[in-house]
Amino acid sequence: MNYWQPPRIRRYAIAIWHRNVLVWKRLIGPAMVLNFGEPTLYLLGLGYGLGFFIGEMGNMSYIAFLASGIVASSAMTTASFEGMYSVFTRMVPQRTYEAIMATPTDIDDILAGEMLWCGTKAAISGAAILIVALFLGVVKGWQAILVIPVVFLIGLCFAGPAIVMSALAKNYDFFNYYFVLIITPMLITSGVFYPIDTMPQTMQTLVHLLPLTHAVELTRPLITGQPLQQPLLNIAVLSGYAAVSYYIAVVMVRKKLLV
Amino acid sequence: MTSHPAIITARQLQKHYGSYVAVDNIDFNITRGKCFGFLGPNGAGKTTTLRMILGLTPLSAGELTVFDLPVPAQAREVRRRIGAVPQADNLDPDFTVVENLRMYARYFGLKLDAALEQRIDRLLLFANLTERRHARTDTLSGGMQRRLTIARALINDPDLIILDEPTTGLDPQARHVIWSRLNDLREQGKTLLLTTHYMEEAERLCDELVIMDHGKILDQGSPAELIKRHVEPEVIELRGCDAQLIDTIRSKVTDCRIEHLGTSLYCYTHNSGPQLAYLRDEHKLTFLHRPAGLEDVFLKLTGRELRD
Fold this sequence. Notes:
The complex is a heterodimer. Chain A is mostly helical. Chain A has one domain. Helix content of chain A is 74%, strand content 2%. Chain A has helices at 12-26, 28-54, 62-91, 96-101, 107-135, 147-168, 175-189, 201-207, 211-224, 231-257; strands at residues 56-57, 60-61. In chain A, strands 1-2 form a two-stranded antiparallel sheet. In chain A, helix 1 packs across helix 5. The radius of gyration of chain A is 19 Å and the shape is globular. By secondary structure, chain B is of the alpha/beta class. In chain B, the strands form three sheets. In chain B, strands 6-7-8-3-9-10 form a six-stranded mixed sheet, with helices on both faces. Chain B has a four-stranded antiparallel sheet with strand order 2-1-4-5. A four-stranded antiparallel sheet of chain B has the order 12-13-11-14, with no helix packed on it.
């Protein structure tokens, strides 16, 4: 068996996606509290609190700056949590994948479905933040609705690496490495909380290798009504991360489960 | 083509994990419409063989065809026609009984239409779970979970049902229910393939079986053939014997093959008359006189040492 064989995505992926939607619907109450509660608290607390001292940032109110960045970072954390804790639970302790793999639905389909679901969950969290931001008066114009598909793409982009971590993990504690070494540094350096153009040039080049930087470069102008700088590059980087990480995830999970 | 063409053909099947040999060059044919068993101690290679048939474990060497399709190359197509019951239940704990069946149908690409709902109703009836259709799976007893797992394996109306230790861990009542359901399936013309280390299960269910140990097939045949081939027809079993008594019996009881396991003695013979007469007269011993069974064959072929 060739573990490196290119994956084929088929309609079976939709069944996996649908499974997760059904489970999510059952727990919709707590999910909504998290989706709406968290951004509301962050934006009110940091946006107004910190914003009082900061005033304007990047030619906009700090709360607008923060809201348009958090929409991207929250997609990242949502997809990462789902791709790690939930996927690992289904893959290892719950052995849901083992049951599914005895049917014509295989690893390629399962992971494609999980990626779609991570994207969907990111889009739900993005939509919630967009609504909160709308009430706070920082959304400028109808183009902001495009944030939803963008956030879906951001979800795909971070789902793949998270699933790779699930394939590598022996237990849940392993994910701490990924959060501390990858996710948190990215959150701090990718322009969510402050503009990256204040950084030294080398640092700016480096942070442009990170997908979150490209994600913020899409969400911020879309929400605050400013012109997009390099949307095609941003989309290409996010899609590239999504595609390559999906492929690596498929290979890693094949090696883990087909033994 | 004979009247019962093979549904699975394995030739020189091997599986190595580094230097460990899990399946060591085995050949077998599984006949359509029969119940075929893999009998062996833990670590014999039974589960690995089942996983290879499902295309979930790559072969190290050899050839494997299921429904005349090569595996693992065409495993996806093969799995469409197989129902699999794993060793440990892996029902989806996020769903109810009926949702587990519906969701599993989706993984087979089946449409959730009226015909499927009818099949689900029939399967719930078959599994005695109609009353519990809306129960969460974690509220079901072990026997109910097992029956639901078997019902789930039938959702695609499979030609071949693969069961990995179907009654391990169940109480006697639950085991009898499972056995009667498996017999029903065989009568419906399904091919059953099961692994077990319960002799009684193998004797009751299997038309044909292989005895496996250390990745090898030790022998193959119907339970009756295997018993006839390997052991004397009668057994006298003595329990609670101390060392001194064992020595006495070994010297006095002749014309039979004596095996010794812990404080039990097994005396295998073609004609038990003289031994029984001696035991009745000489000792106030409890003994059991019974026809030889698969367990005797199994212990003879695989040895009596403890397995972990």
